[in-house]
């Protein structure tokens, strides 16, 4: 069977032009997707758990039925005083919605992987707004592209060919030649090597460079010293000129800004630079979101609770205070007494200090495959993968919801079904 | 020697993302990219092992020369190895020090642990799918 116009369930680009060929329940060929997407689609059956597993109480593991595992998960959540429901970035919007409802009923905390990737970007956006646009606008109009603190060649391999440097644009004659590419980073990445202009900043210097650029764009270049964080004033002036003379500029940034010293203040300064540039021409800004539906978690959480991540229901109302109600802080303070992890792998992405606590409390993992988190949990429930054997909604990094289609049936329940069944058990005890 | 500890995504790490128990993933995330001049100072060659000490503990990585990495900084792909030395401080933002930690690095003869060994050290219990009855 050949399936066309399939959506790749890997990164926030959500490429929707993928062609997948199957023989029986095996994927034999993938066209159009990048290495990352192809790899995920081709190896989807590997490492999948056959069924739920639980600790056997004697230092090992045993098989369990779905019913038993769901019962256990609900029990753990109901027994907890401060349950943490974490993850939600590689699953469907439908499951995210149920997760929020369940967190509310439990009086728990629900947080997505946002808190360790673009959480600071959201904090900045909450302060000064988001001058965003869809990627279609960028593809068809943008003649200056900035990638700041990110490495799309490695992390979003088709971003440049679908939306920027290598993409044809409706309003550009010769897109490849007409589009200028500016890359700013603390190390010379692969993306940097193809840039028209590469700006290498000393680690921690982003904030100062944004401020210098803002001053220059505003006509106050006189206050800028000869070098700022390792960047010469000459180069800054050149960059400012390129940005000002753009017809349509698109600014993309990655976790290089959100994780650097200054965190959300860097992003705030970036947005204010874009604001400044908009007094001369049209500029937009988009965070490069990692997991394919991490943006969806922000959308779903926001329209249900008013807050995009780190939502704490312990006060019976939605409360949000990143730095306090974010997962890393809750785990590092050893505050939660049970954890439900859905479709994410903190074992690979959280600091050791947090994992030590995770391993010491009853943790239930809902994830299709064996991951680094598996050894840390007490029970794992495998589910179908959205975009492969489950259909559902995901949001692209520019906020466009896309329907993910399924093309296989491997007999696994969906995340929505499992979260829904746990929620049903919770409701039997704690009535809404 | 002290280094700024920078972590981030790479294609090789990304490929391993959905199959994290594989040795590919361990290989991709246990690399420590370092400026060749710093490598000379430490007297190590490509593939030699380093012990990295951070606030939460230490981990053994293998060194890879990388011209693009400035002196005084090491780059380690996002993953369980990099995180094995990190503490839980977020400076009130929810975001740990993924790119802003300073670490102490020295050459070692010790072996690079497997991902499972790392998790067991933290209190996890290894699971083997094949070994099921
Ligand atoms: S760029 Fe992202 S969404 Fe597109 S094919 Fe690659 S991994 Fe998939």
In short:
The complex is a heterodimer of chains A (about 425) and B (about 130). Chain A has 18 helices and 21 strands. Chain A has about 425 residues and is α/β, with parallel strands linked by helices.
What would you note in describing this structure?
The complex is a heterodimer of chains A (432) and B (133). Chain A is α/β, with parallel strands linked by helices and 432 residues long. Chain A has three domains: 2-42, no CATH class; 53-115 and 292-430, Rossmann fold (3-Layer(aba) Sandwich); 119-287, Dimethylsulfoxide Reductase, domain 2 (3-Layer(aba) Sandwich). Helices cover 36% and strands 20% of the residues of chain A. Chain A has helices spanning 35-42, 66-79, 93-106, 119-128, 135-141, 152-155, 159-162, 175-178, 190-193, 206-217, 233-244, 255-258, 264-277, 294-305, 327-332, 346-349, 352-360, 415-429; strands spanning 2-6, 18-23, 26-31, 53-55, 61-63, 83-87, 109-112, 144-148, 180-185, 197-200, 227-228, 231-232, 248-253, 282-287, 311-312, 319-320, 338-342, 363-366, 379-381, 392-395, 401-404. Chain A has a nine-stranded mixed β-sheet. A five-stranded parallel β-sheet of chain A has the order 10-9-8-13-14. By secondary structure, chain B is of the alpha/beta class. Chain B has one domain: Barwin-like endoglucanases. Chain B contains five helices and six strands, in the order βααβαβββαβα. Chain B has helices at residues 11-16, 23-29, 36-42, 80-83, 115-122; strands spanning 2-8, 31-34, 49-54, 57-65, 73-77, 101-108. In chain B, strands 1-5-2-4-3-6 form a six-stranded mixed barrel. In chain B, a hairpin with a 2-residue loop joins strand 3 and strand 4. The termini of chain B are far apart. At the A-B interface, helix 1, helix 4, helix 6, helix 12 and helix 15 of A face strand 1, helix 1 and helix 5 of B. Bound molecules: iron/sulfur cluster (SF4). Iron/sulfur cluster binds at residues 8, 10-11, 13-15, 33-34, 36-37, 156-158 of chain A.
């Amino acid at each position: 069977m050949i399936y066309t116009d399939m959506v790749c369930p890997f990164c926030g680009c959500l490429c929707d032009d993928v062609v997948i060929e199957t023989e029986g329940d095996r994927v034999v060929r993938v066209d159009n997707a990048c290495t990352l997407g192809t790899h995920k689609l081709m190896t989807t059956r590997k490492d999948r758990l056959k069924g739920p597993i639980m600790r056997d109480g004697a230092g090992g593991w045993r098989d369990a039925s779905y019913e038993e595992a769901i019962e256990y998960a609900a029990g753990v959540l109901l027994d907890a005083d401060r349950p943490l429901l974490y993850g939600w970035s590689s699953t469907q919007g439908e499951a995210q919605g149920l997760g929020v409802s369940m967190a509310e009923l439990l009086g728990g905390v629900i947080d997505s992987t946002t808190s360790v990737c673009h959480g600071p970007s959201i904090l900045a956006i909450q302060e000064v707004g988001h001058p965003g646009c869809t990627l279609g606008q960028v593809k068809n109009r943008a003649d200056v592209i900035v990638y700041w603190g990110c490495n799309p060649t490695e992390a979003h391999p088709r971003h440049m060919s679908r939306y920027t440097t290598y993409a044809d644009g409706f309003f550009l004659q010769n897109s490849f030649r007409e589009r200028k590419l500016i890359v700013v980073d603390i190390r010379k990445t692969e993306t940097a090597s193809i840039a028209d202009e590469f700006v290498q900043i000393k680690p921690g210097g982003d904030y100062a460079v944004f401020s210098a650029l803002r001053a220059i764009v505003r006509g106050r270049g006189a206050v800028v010293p000869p070098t700022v964080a390792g960047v010469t004033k000459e180069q800054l002036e050149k960059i400012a000129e390129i940005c000002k003379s753009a017809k349509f500029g698109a600014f993309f940034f990655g976790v290089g800004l959100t994780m650097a010293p200054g965190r959300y203040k860097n992003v705030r300064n970036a947005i204010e630079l874009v604001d400044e540039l908009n007094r001369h021409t049209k500029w937009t800004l988009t965070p490069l979101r990692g997991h394919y539906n991490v943006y969806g978690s922000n959308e779903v959480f926001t329209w249900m609770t008013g807050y995009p991540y780190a939502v704490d229901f312990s006060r019976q109302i939605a409360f949000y205070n990143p730095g306090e109600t974010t997962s890393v802080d809750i785990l590092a303070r050893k505050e939660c007494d049970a954890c439900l992890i859905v479709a994410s792998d903190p074992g690979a992405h959280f600091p050791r200090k947090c994992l030590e606590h995770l391993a010491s409390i009853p943790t239930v993992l809902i994830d299709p495959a064996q991951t680094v988190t598996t050894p840390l949990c007490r029970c794992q429930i495998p589910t179908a993968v959205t975009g492969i054997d489950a259909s559902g909604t995901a949001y692209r990094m520019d906020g466009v919801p896309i329907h993910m289609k399924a093309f296989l049936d491997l007999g696994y329940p969906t995340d929505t079904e499992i979260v829904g069944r746990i929620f049903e058990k919770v409701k039997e005890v704690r009535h809404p | 020697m002290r280094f700024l500890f920078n972590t981030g995504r790479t294609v090789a790490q990304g490929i391993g993302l959905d199959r994290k128990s594989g040795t590919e993933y361990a290989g991709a995330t246990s690399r420590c990219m370092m400026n060749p001049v710093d490598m000379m100072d430490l007297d190590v060659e490509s593939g030699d092992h380093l012990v990295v000490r951070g606030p939460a503990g230490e981990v053994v990585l293998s060194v890879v020369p990388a011209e693009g990495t400035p002196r005084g900084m090491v780059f380690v792909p996002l993953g369980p190895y990099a995180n094995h030395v990190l503490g839980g401080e977020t400076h009130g933002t929810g975001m740990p020090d993924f790119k802003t930690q300073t670490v102490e690095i020295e050459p070692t003869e010790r072996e690079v642990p497997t991902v499972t060994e790392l998790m067991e050290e933290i209190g996890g219990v290894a699971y083997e799918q094949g070994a099921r009855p």
